[in-house]
Amino acid sequence: MSRIAKRFDALKKEGRSAFVTFVTAGDPDLKTSQELFAGLPEAGADILEIGMPFSDPMADGPAIQLGSQRALANGMTLKGVLALVADFRKTDNETPIVLMGYFNPIYSFGVDKFVVEAKEAGVDGFIIVDLPPEEEREFAIPAKDAGLDFIYLTTPTADDARLATIASKASGFIYYVSITGVTGTASAVASDVEAAVKRIKSHTDLPVAIGFGINTPDQAKVMAGLSDAAVVGSAIVKKIADNLDENATAKDGLVEDVLSYVNELARGVRAASA
Fold first, then answer.
1. pLDDT score of 187 more than 90
2. 254 HSE (CA, 13 A, CB side)
3. Closest C-alpha to 3, from 104, 96, 134, 113
4. Catalytically annotated residues
């Protein structure tokens, strides 16, 4: 059983949803990124979604775009992302790690080489935004053949035929994008999300995670109560940005402030099962 499956299974037995955090690798710098990743599980993160910085992150809003730019400006590469994962695995071999990003850097790196090195580093799965199920041979199939999960996104505009296709190809969990548009720009309506999750679950036994538009502990509580996982990304990345000086350099206390905020969100997720 994969780390992702084990984590969802354990949380189901606890009667609660997972809290998934997103932070871009190398944002705002390598050392700070290492410290953030190391502290996220203790702060309450159940699954780490790690962004692979890319120069044209089309599904991401301004906050994550800026985070990618900061990471790239500080020299972060795919090799560097995998090194961060390997460093994390020296002290934590249980927390699932999902890499999120776009296919172009992976293609340039070499698909087969990347799959091998990602598995060796301790990666558990991928969310590749610009690879739909129709393109599964490009990367999803090689990843799954290596025992790594490939998580697909689905949106409010997906009909039942599309959901059936996604459900038949996905592994690990299904990521429901709760708003139309890019990350960090709006908040979802709970009644709409509840109906969407029920519809997705009619097509699959995989866990369903809700992301895009969760910014507060109260929103995290609501969305966790409607699903198997709540994902928070832009709000955490904004908290990083709030702790940078005019040169985009980390201020003293950045890690502590971000992890404190993550803990508040985690308490919101856990309150959903209270």
1. no
2. 25
3. 96
4. 49, 60
Q: List the beta bridge partners of residue 206.
A: none
**How high is the pLDDT of residue 37?**
98
The alpha carbon of residue 79 and the mean position of all alpha carbons in its chain are separated, in whole angstroms, by: 19
Q: Which CATH fold topology does 3-271 show? A: TIM Barrel (3.20.20)
Q: What percent of the chain lies above the pLDDT cut of 90?
A: 88
Identify the residue whose tokens are 């109560």.
225
**Does pTM surpass 0.70?**
yes
Does position 185 have pLDDT exceeding 50, yes or no? no
How far apart CA 253 and CA 39 sit, in angstroms, is: 13
Query: Can you give the residue ranges of every domain in the chain?
Result: 3-271
